[in-house]
Automatic annotation (TrEMBL):
Domain tRNA synthetases class I (E and Q) anti-codon binding: 472-546
Taxonomic lineage: Bacteria, Pseudomonadati, Bacteroidota, Flavobacteriia, Flavobacteriales
Domain Glutamyl/glutaminyl-tRNA synthetase class Ib anti-codon binding: 362-461
Protein's recorded name: Glutamine--tRNA ligase
Stretches assigned to the Glutamyl/glutaminyl-tRNA synthetase class Ib catalytic domain: 44-359
Key words, A-Z: Aminoacyl-tRNA synthetase, ATP-binding, Cytoplasm, Ligase, Nucleotide-binding, Protein biosynthesis
Coiled coil location: none
Renumbered residue ranges of the record's region Disordered: 143-162, 565-588
Low complexity: compositionally biased ranges: 572-585
Length: 684
């Protein structure tokens, strides 16, 4: 190859890589890159997250947090945490403290902690200058009269009878408002813009109102408070924010944001030369979830939940207490991405992210939540053994622990049936199962009470642990078990859009089974568990130690189940109303999995993730007999083999015993050149 040819290849390679990088940028990053290309110095980039301290942050806020702080990390730019505290009637220091704790817990660091109340004097001084310039006036109408004369989206407004007050009269009244000479609601200060503007926000918006209330930072120093639209944009300007990022509901406010900014710029352009640029992104909407602070407050005040940090709440503090991890939430936000249009994200994606994260980090332990006693009749009375249990197969450094075994153990009631078919891989009379980390047992007989309820299962054990059996059960030694309160949390609402029904109150859709409290029997290694520690209760789900725990009274919260238990509850699509037409026979589940696998490697990352979640859900309804024929899938059909690996992971989690065919499939997958297939095989 000649030098020129080599150079050409290198240029093409670089262009292709640049193209890939450009494609991967979201639309906000495109805006920033364009501004930098047009001469904005990189050191002038500055972002902010501006919460109102009138409630706790919820999962919806994490998107705004992730965008602003993520851009700060990407560009090495400072990010301010600014509290827009303009309404003392609803704001409290408790909310300020909670917001700071939540953001720090998510792993973000702010450059400056600021408050809009820091700028009250400057905002007041600018308002006085606007009065002097004829751009603001004091209105003395009632709120009802102002609302009426403001018009409608299709009908222009009419001017206030006080719009043409003299500058001197306006200055005197505004000073009197500040000095507390007037009653609440007697006067307001309005911007003088255009009562016929098609954007109703431009029809002489209120800038200041009289409010006699204690402010959490300024106390009683002020009795007039600036409105949000006036304060927010000017605070951005004072802090010299380069890009003011907010959710789509603020898009109509952008015109007013720019109007205020343009007028204030004339007063401070030498000191504050940069004009912020407001841009909007789609907010995060989540199925089965309420995002309104007002409605969340109602849940707290009416005692539906036990506080803002109740593990059923979508607040960050509630998610933290439930056992969600910062990494799982950040991964969720990354997968959701940055969009321009509103959409609803299925809450199962959030649950998927925490499962993925905890699967890597949470130690496996055994707990029984609905116990039935098993007596191993051929195991010596009084004997006990301490067996080795692997802490986490996903983490080589996690090590192992000792688990006690004795003649009497607890298993879950649902893991035993007196009579069952061939597809029941748990314990049944005459059948054998493996006890996790221990022996193989066979059920011989049951003991029942006078009402016919089984109270004990009598079994014999075998020391031949190499024997092939299909089922594996978790268990706890009766003699060594510790007890704990276990709170099994579920979704708070049963409807996908609880506040999406105009004719119904969202409270009508509350899930009556969102909390079940049980007495759990746990292996003794958990006796020293600390608040916040997370575990996988094998075959049951992920749990963490709750704040209510005491040294001798442990409390565990269920974070999430091992699989999506809601998938099966979703209503099926309605059948064709024309009964004369023959109904199509449903495709076997394994065929649907195969079809998803065929396209898997050609999908973009976001669709690949959705396909992965769908395969894992479908695999819950697939038997080993369905899956085994696909172990011999041709090497070139990588997508199908990935789908098989995903399905196999579900079967193994649900108690399928490993065998030679499974081991052969996994070893071949580990030798493949496709990284996705190797990754799934390593997880097995």
């Amino acid at each position: 190859m000649t030098f020129n040819n080599a150079a050409a290849v290198l240029i093409i390679f670089n262009l292709e890589n640049m193209s890939e990088e450009i494609k991967s940028l979201n639309f906000i990053e495109h805006i920033i890159e364009e501004d930098l290309a047009n001469g904005l110095p990189k050191e002038k980039l500055r972002f902010r997250f501006p919460p109102e301290p009138n409630g706790y942050l919820h999962i919806g806020h994490t998107k705004a947090i992730g965008i602003s702080f993520g851009l700060g990390e990407k560009y090495g730019a400072p990010v301010n945490l600014r509290f827009d505290d303009t309404n003392p009637a609803k704001e409290e220091q408790e909310y300020v403290d909670a917001i700071k704790q939540d953001i720090a817990w998510l792993g973000y660091n702010w450059a400056n902690e600021l408050y809009s109340s820091d700028y009250f004097q400057k905002l007041y001084d600018w308002a006085v200058l606007m009065i002097k310039d004829g751009k603001a006036y004091v209105d003395s109408q009632s709120s009802e009269a102002m609302a009426e004369q403001k018009g409608t989206p299709t009908q222009v407004g009419t001017n206030s009878p006080y719009r043409d007050r003299t500058v001197e009269e306006n200055l005197a009244l505004f000073q009197g408002m500040k000095d507390g000479k007037f009653k609440q609601g007697e006067h307001v200060l309005r911007a003088k813009i255009d009562m016929e503007d098609p954007n109703m926000l431009m029809r002489d918006p209120i800038m200041y109102r009289i409010l006699f209330a204690h402010h959490h930072r300024t106390g009683e120093a002020w009795c007039i408070y600036p409105m949000y639209d006036w304060t927010h944009g000017e605070s951005d300007y004072i802090e010299q924010i380069s890009h003011s990022l907010c959710s789509l509901e603020f898009k109509p406010h952008r015109k007013l944001y720019d109007w205020f900014k343009a007028h204030v710029y004339d007063y401070a352009k030498e000191e504050l030369p940069m004009l912020p640029k407001q841009r909007e992104f789609a907010r995060l909407n989540l199925s089965y979830t309420i995002m309104s602070k007002r409605k969340l407050l109602r849940l707290v005040e009416e005692g539906v939940v036990k506080g803002w940090d109740d593990p059923r709440m979508p607040t960050i503090s509630g998610l933290r207490r439930r056992g969600y991890t910062p990494n799982s939430i950040r991964q969720f936000i990354e997968k959701v991405g940055v969009a321009k249009r509103e959409n609803v994200i299925d809450v199962s994606l959030l649950e998927f992210c925490v499962r993925e994260d905890l699967n890597k980090t949470a130690n496996r332990v055994m707990a029984v939540l609905d116990p039935i006693k098993v007596v191993i009749t051929n195991y010596p009375k009084g004997k006990e053994e301490w067996l080795d249990g692997e802490n986490n197969p996903e983490d080589d450094s996690a090590g192992s622990r000792k688990v006690p075994f004795s003649r009497e153990i607890y298993i879950e009631k649902e893991d035993f049936k007196e009579e069952a078919g061939n597809k029941f891989f748990r314990l049944k009379t005459g059948g054998e199962v493996r006890l996790k980390n221990a022996y193989i047992i066979q059920a011989n007989e049951v003991i029942k009470d006078t009402e016919g309820h089984i109270t004990e299962i009598h079994c014999t054990y075998s020391t031949d642990t190499e024997k092939k059996v299909k089922g594996t059960l978790h268990w706890v030694s009766v003699k060594h078990a510790i007890t704990a309160e276990v709170r099994e949390y579920d979704r708070l609402f049963m409807d996908e859009a609880p506040d999406g029904h105009k004719d119904k109150d969202f409270m009508e859709f509350l899930n009556p089974n969102s909390l079940r409290v049980k007495k759990g029997y746990l292996e003794p290694s958990l006796a020293e568990a600390k608040v916040g520690e997370q575990f996988q209760f094998q075959r049951l789900g992920y749990f963490n130690v709750d704040n209510d725990s005491q040294a001798d009274a442990l409390v565990f919260n269920k974070t999430v189940s091992l699989r999506d238990s809601w998938a099966k509850q979703k209503p099926k699509p309605q059948q064709n109303q024309n009964q004369n037409k023959p109904q199509q026979q449903a495709r076997p589940t394994i065929s649907v999995i195969q079809q998803l696998g065929k396209k898997y490697t050609n999908l973009p990352e976001e669709k690949q993730l959705k396909s992965r979640v769908e395969i894992l859900k479908l695999a819950e309804n697939v038997s080993y007999e369905d899956l085994e024929p696909l172990f011999g899938t041709a090497t070139k059909k990588v997508g199908t083999r990935i789908a098989v690996a995903l399905s196999l992971s579900v079967l193994l989690k649900n108690g399928q015993e490993r065998n030679e065919a499974i081991d052969t499939f996994i070893s071949k997958a580990l030798e493949d050149k496709n990284e996705l297939l190797v990754k799934e095989a390593q997880a097995l």
